Amino acid sequence: MDVPFPSAARVAPPAPRHRRLSPEAQLAELARLSAPTFQAHLARAGLPALTAGPLRVLQVNVGKLCNQTCRHCHVDAGPHQVEANMAWPTFAACLEVARAARPPVVDLTGGAPELNAHFRRFVHEVKALGVREVIDRCNLTVLLLPGQRDLVSFLAEHGVHVVASLPAVNAAQTDAQRGDGVFERSLEGLRRLNAAGYGQPGTGLELTLMSNPSGAFLPPPQAAQEARFKALLRERHGIVFTRLVELTNMPIHRFLEFLLERDDLERYVGALSQAFNPAAVGGLMCRDTLSVGWDGRLYDCDFNQMLELEVAPAEARTIFTWRDELLAERPIRVARHCLGCTAGQGSSCAGATSASSV
User: Fold this and answer.
1) CA–CA gap between residue 44 and residue 128 (Å, rounded)
2) Distance between CA 205 and CA 298 in Å, rounded?
3) Which residues, 6+ apart, have CB-to-CB distance to 303 below 8 Å?
4) What's 8-13+22-341's CATH class?
5) Three-state DSSP class for 83?
6) What digits encode the pLDDT tens for the residues 259-289?
7) What are the residue ranges spanned by the domains of the chain?
8) Can you tell me the distance from the alpha carbon of 64 to that of 83, in angstroms, rounded to the nearest whole number?
9) Prediction pTM value
């Protein structure tokens, strides 16, 4: 096991007690729905099947270990996930691909990526390669753990772009998703980032907030939500940030189970289908991203990773067998969950993919 992890259980809801649906079972639930398939929507809009373009983002999911257990989590992360975490040889292979492919962005996600024992070494070595932007997808409360007291200064020293999860600007909504007390601890994490220069004009330290809906509905317009978050966080808490991105709740893993428990999966995916926006297709993250799983397997995006839909070329399905000539212009693997990325203003790890919704 790569990751020492003290005191996690004290800051997160209890780990899930029931058996999770397998990726195959999740895909089966989506396949039986009556909504048109993603491929049918593309055809109806006169759009070709998705293929990959030039690599812009190497997204590395370092593992499922996390100090929180969030209800909407598409990764099924939590304090109980102590085994599914990336080892150094896999990180080293990612470095070799970054050196060869020279993507402008390396995006670290999890779980809580900072809890992987090799996180800091990898960040240091990626920056040494001259990668333009390194992203840390941070849950904010990890900054308060006893073993992470110098984490903010490390991130600032290395110029890491922090993308921080904050579903809402009120405690009730945030805590309902992420656990009791998470909102207040998240504010403290943001204060520490602000004190280090994050989100402050002229520092070059970007602080992006990522928000998602509290239930089975589409997020509001991103620009309006950003203005609202900026006003309320500044007025109520003296907190500033660079920008906000909205993420649609994907009907996979815990959110899929949430929908099944409420017999709401058919309606929700139907709503995603009805809101299909052809203008959102061009900005889909799968078109310029290569997603690396904690075990080195390769995927078109982080959502496909959680459904174990590996990249199409069988000869290049791990970071150890990466071959640019096989992965370039590869067909993107899709299923009905992809409707979450093309509904309304569109959705991706970088936020909305279209300036307007249908």
Assistant:
1) 46
2) 30
3) 74, 250, 252, 337, 338, 340, 341
4) alpha beta
5) coil
6) 999 999 999 999 999 999 999 999 999 999 9
7) 8-13+22-341
8) 8
9) 0.90
